[in-house]
Design a protein that fits this description.
Shape: globular
Number of helices: 16
Structural class: alpha/beta
CATH superfamily of the largest domain: P-loop containing nucleotide triphosphate hydrolases
Strand order of the largest sheet: 3-2-6-7-1-8
Number of domains: 2
Mean pLDDT: 84
């Protein structure tokens, strides 16, 4: 598909909404061509008379990418002094004042310098979209929040910057930039991705065959699921059919669960695969009322609630003496088909005697699918 055809497709999509439309190029590693393709599309849009600006583009010194910039309007970056160093950041206010039709934004998972208007660049993008400006952006698949643990365990790399799944779901168009692992490694060795002095280090760390194959698989799968979700949504919208309830997922969260972030990420992934809404439900018992709950547990609970909302969940707080009954009632009244709960860390005999919540859900919610998630050895030893 040519850059001109891709540009036309994007314009057809964004013209259907008053809010800016988001198009995302997804890759599995640096060097697959995300920035190059965005610049190609920007030039194609400009030739059709569309007002396009570059809000933030990072070429990493790649000559073939830099050659595409001349002729496209660039919004100057703002310089921020931080700890004696001058840092360049995207100037959101300048973009909003310029009000182009389309803005190109690279490296969306980036964390802004402290004191910035927004903490993360994806939040800058959301602000630009809310102003009615269309955005073409890019990110690598390992920066998707719900995949953080999967990537860290499978590829053995630490992921420090992420974007919530709800950001990806907000895109009107998602394009996977696929490239054979062998071809990517050839580009790296030829000095087309990093400077020559960085190539050896990259090959010994992130750019290992197994890592790249794992990430490529994840990218292919995630974009395929994203396209499927968008197709189902468009089909329902055109037919007037209400959103199906049977795919809804409910994650059960206690006040201070071990590794709650992992449980929430798994719930988010399941909801994404099922193309359904999802809830995070916390049952406040009399012992956990605001004036009685332990301060540390309260702090963790508030943090986990904020994280769940970032992932796109609807968070619900129930008040009840019997958590299991409250959870089952909520699930049945809200069309939930799948209940996700962490495995109890208590010994099995104590779970049986105390009738733990996971065991009760298995026994009393026989009409629902109950998924008891293992959260790793740390929880089992607790």
């Amino acid at each position: 598909m040519t850059a001109s055809r891709r540009a036309e497709d994007f314009l057809e999509l964004v013209q259907r909404t008053r809010r800016g439309g988001l198009k995302l190029y997804i890759g599995f590693a640096a060097g697959v061509g995300k920035t190059y393709r965005m610049l190609e599309e920007a030039r194609a849009l400009g030739k059709r008379g569309v007002d396009v600006v570059l809000g933030f583009v990072e070429t990493h010194g790649r000559a073939e990418t830099e050659a595409l910039i001349p002729g496209i309007d660039v919004v100057p970056r703002r310089n921020v002094e931080y700890r004696g160093v001058t840092i360049e950041e995207m100037d959101v206010d300048a973009i909003l004042a310029r009000k182009p039709e389309v803005c190109v934004v690279d490296e969306i998972p980036h964390t802004n310098v402290p004191g910035s208007k927004n903490k993360k660049r994806y939040q800058d993008v959301l602000e630009i979209l809310a102003a009615g400006i269309n955005v073409i952006g890019a990110l690598n698949i390992q920066h998707l929040e719900s995949l953080k643990n999967v990537v860290e365990e499978a590829a053995g790399v630490a992921i420090r910057e992420t974007v919530p799944d709800s950001f990806l779901k907000a895109a009107v168009q998602v394009v996977n930039l696929d490239l054979a692992v062998e071809d990517l490694l050839e580009r790296l060795k030829a000095g087309k991705i990093y400077a020559p002095e960085k190539v050896t280090w990259a090959l010994e760390h992130f750019f290992k065959d197994d890592n790249l194959m794992t990430l490529r698989e994840l990218a292919l799968r995630e974009v395929a699921e994203s396209v499927e979700r968008q197709s189902e949504t468009r089909a329902r919208t055109s037919s007037g059919e209400p959103r199906a309830a049977h795919g809804r997922v409910m994650v059960c969260m206690s006040s201070y669960p071990p590794r709650a972030e992992l449980l929430l990420r798994k719930g988010s992934r399941m909801a994404g695969r099922l193309s359904g809404d999802w809830f995070v439900v916390y049952v406040e018992t009399p012992q956990e009322a605001p004036d009685r709950i332990d301060s540390e547990a309260q702090r963790h609970l508030l943090g986990n609630i904020a994280f769940a909302r970032e992932l796109g969940a609807e968070v619900v707080r129930l008040q009840a003496r019997d958590p299991a009954a409250a959870l089952i009632d909520f699930a049945r009244s809200h069309g939930v088909g799948h209940i996700v709960i962490g495995r109890s860390h208590q010994p099995w005999w104590r779970q049986v005697l105390a009738r733990s919540v996971p065991l009760r859900l298995l026994r009393e919610a026989s009409d629902l699918d109950v998924h008891i998630v293992s959260l790793g050895a740390e929880e089992e030893r607790a």
